[in-house]
Write the structure tokens for this entry.
Amino acid sequence: MTFHARLAAATLLVMATAAAAQNAPDRKVYCWDEGGRRVCGDALPGSAVNAPRTEISTRSGLTTAELARAPTAAERSAAEAVQRETRLAAEAEAAARRRELAMVESYATETDLRRAYGERIVLVEEAIKTSRMGVANLRTSLLSQLRQAGELELHAQPVGKALRDRIQSQRADLLRQLAVLDQQLGDQAALDGDLQAALTRYRELKQTASRD
């Protein structure tokens, strides 16, 4: 074989070797910390699966990935809670925007908006009146039965079980009705605040719409 023929054969062999190397699968080398020292290998043991590690290409010798430590169950739970709260906050904000747009579209004027709130305010006021009457009646009845029990005791007579049961029942009813009344008064105060906030936001949205 002549010199030129040998040179051509050698060149072809080098090219074939290079092509084979390029076509070979790109394996990874993993490096991680273990026992205070750096360990590298072409296989990742189970003990290092959740550890932070570096992945290096055997073909190029370059780092292809830097993987952080896998989160613990508590960290995953905390992250999921943050994501859930963020999603709920976004949904609440979107719902508030929809309500505001519906408010502008539903009420042509502030008078219409006040009228709508006025109907709700009247319902709450009527409920408060009813509750106050109920409280007054229950209190009167309870006082009457307490006086009856007091008279019996003044005359050294026993207070019967039926009377004691009625007193306890009336007292429980009175406490429940007072709790209802307290809730209704809170609703009334909140409704007044809601109306003022709605009017303020309504004016802002109307002004924005008029500028657009």
